[in-house]
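Late entry, manganese (II) ion complex.
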Amino acid sequence: MRVLLCNDDGIDAPGLQCLEEVATEFGEVMVVAPSEEQSAMSHAFSLRRPLRAIQRSDHHWAVTGTPADCVYLALKALLSEPPDLILSGVNHGSNLGKDVPYSGTAAAAREGCFGGIPSIAFSLFTEPGGPVRWDTAAHCVRDVLKRFHPGGSIHPDTFLNVNIPNIPIPELRGVKTTELGKRFYEERTERRTDIRGKAYYWIGGPHSHFEGGPDTDGIAVAEGWVSVSPVHTLPTHYPSLSAVRDWTDA
Ligand code: MN
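Prediction complete; structure with ligand written out below:
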């Protein structure tokens, strides 16, 4: 099996090394990852600047672009044969609920899905300043990959978004299929003044809480489950179609 790896924390990130160690147990690995951190770049695609692909070894490429650029370039230019599976991560930090559309980690998996390849995004539910349990991440990636079969475990218009609890391995409760739930942040902005007297802003804030049932991703991972969510790449809200048609077609 040929496995393509990508991430959004950059090619030197420990989470990608963790993923590579496990993926090597399952097949022949190629890494095509951003040369610099690209967290929260979503599915950004570099149409207005050139990309450089720096080959670091037989199977490592650092690309001066986004996660979506990396997967696109890997599939269309860098790999001699298409991979059987694309893995993204392991992200340093969770990607739960509304994080998914902001996430570069998820975007790499979505781009893989657009390319017709079964794709999985992995993220570790770390907390700021706390320990980072890459051993737990490796254990859970291995567990998910043992269960997953690229030929039949997933619909071709979906990718899998996996979140891993950052807890010791003996405390893990198992693997659970989930839906994306509601995640809330303290939505802070901070206005500062630059050395020329002009205002600038920092945006973002820390996690606040999750809302949803036990089978939503944030609640499940907070309770110690490895959360596996199938994510559709084309997010039409089907229950709304008839209500919208009522006024568009009136
Ligand atoms: Mn990241």
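Residues 8-9, 39, 91-93, 105 surround manganese (II) ion (CB under 6 Å). Will revisit in the morning.
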